[in-house]
């Protein structure tokens, strides 16, 4: 198994290191050719509008849509969750998205950088106790459809969700020093390309 980590902007290096700690081959993705080599993909945290622009400049918008439509497992963290939501609140009108999950995400809803925080979350199906989650300029999932399985919540809002082969978190699991969510992600079977609702 080869895991690609989108490396245009954001916290991609920590994801690669986390997979390496599990003995899983992971590499940085910056081109369509590299994306084609990935069995599954992480879209990391960062700044979602900046990432959207860089996807255009790297000519990755079309290839990424095709990759998602093919049913490859994808893990969107923080900004990655924003890009994979069907509806974005607080985004730019020209912001590109890949509406794979039936949910609404509000950008920076927990506050700016100085309001970043950490907390322990109970995660459905995760062995070994709570997961220590790091929230940095985090989005909030404000609405979600029945196809979206909620795996963890914070203050009544989903913090970790899954729909088919797509998993999303509003926090940064790669900064926790705990590889269990990455391990959960690599256990997800490939989808059929029909996760979008």
Protein topology:
Layout lengths: L1 E5 L5 H10 L3 E5 L2 H5 L3 E4 L4 H10 L3 H9 L4 E4 L1 H6 E5 L11 E6 L10 E5 L9 E5 L4 E5 L4 E6 L2 E7 L2 E4 L10 H7 L11
Parallel strand pairs: 1-2, 1-3, 3-4, 4-12, 5-6
Antiparallel strand pairs: 6-9, 7-8, 10-11, 11-12
Short description:
The protein is 24% helix and 31% strand.
Strand content: 25-35%
Strand order of the largest sheet: 2-1-3-4-12-11-10
Averaging pLDDT over every residue, what do you get?
92
Shape type: globular
CATH homologous superfamily assignment: Class I glutamine amidotransferase (GATase) domain
Low-pLDDT regions: none
- Looking at CATH, which topology would you report? Rossmann fold
Count of all domains: 1
Would you write up a description of this structure?
This protein has 197 residues and is α/β, with parallel strands linked by helices. It has a single domain, classed as Rossmann fold (3-Layer(aba) Sandwich). The chain contains 6 helices and 12 strands. The chain has helices at 12-21, 32-36, 48-57, 61-69, 79-84, 180-186, and strands spanning 2-6, 25-29, 40-43, 74-77, 85-89, 101-106, 117-121, 131-135, 140-144, 149-154, 157-163, 166-169. The protein has a 7-stranded mixed beta sheet. A 3-stranded mixed beta sheet has the order 5-6-9. Helix 1 (12-21) links the parallel strand 1 and strand 2. The two termini are 28 Å apart. The relative contact order is 0.18. The model has no long low-confidence stretch (mean pLDDT 92).
């Amino acid at each position: 198994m080869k895991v690609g980590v989108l490396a245009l902007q954001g916290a991609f290096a920590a994801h690669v290191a986390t997979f390496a700690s599990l003995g899983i081959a992971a590499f940085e993705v910056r081109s369509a050719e590299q994306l084609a080599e990935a069995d599954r993909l992480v879209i990391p945290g960062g700044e979602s509008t900046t990432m959207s622009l860089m996807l255009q400049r790297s000519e990755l918008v079309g290839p990424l849509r095709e990759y998602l439509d093919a049913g490859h497992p994808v893990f969107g963290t923080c900004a990655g969750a924003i890009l994979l939501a069907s509806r974005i609140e607080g985004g730019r009108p020209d912001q590109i998205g890949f509406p794979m999950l039936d949910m609404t995400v509000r950008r920076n809803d927990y506050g700016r950088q100085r309001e970043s925080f950490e907390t322990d979350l109970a995660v459905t199906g995760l062995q070994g106790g709570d997961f220590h989650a790091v929230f940095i300029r985090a989005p909030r999932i404000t609405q979600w459809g029945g196809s979206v399985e909620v795996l963890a919540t914070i203050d009544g809002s989903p913090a970790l969700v899954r729909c088919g082969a797509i998993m999303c978190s509003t926090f940064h699991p790669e900064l926790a020093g705990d590889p269990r969510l990455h391990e959960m992600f690599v256990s997800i079977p490939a989808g059929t390309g029909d996760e979008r609702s």
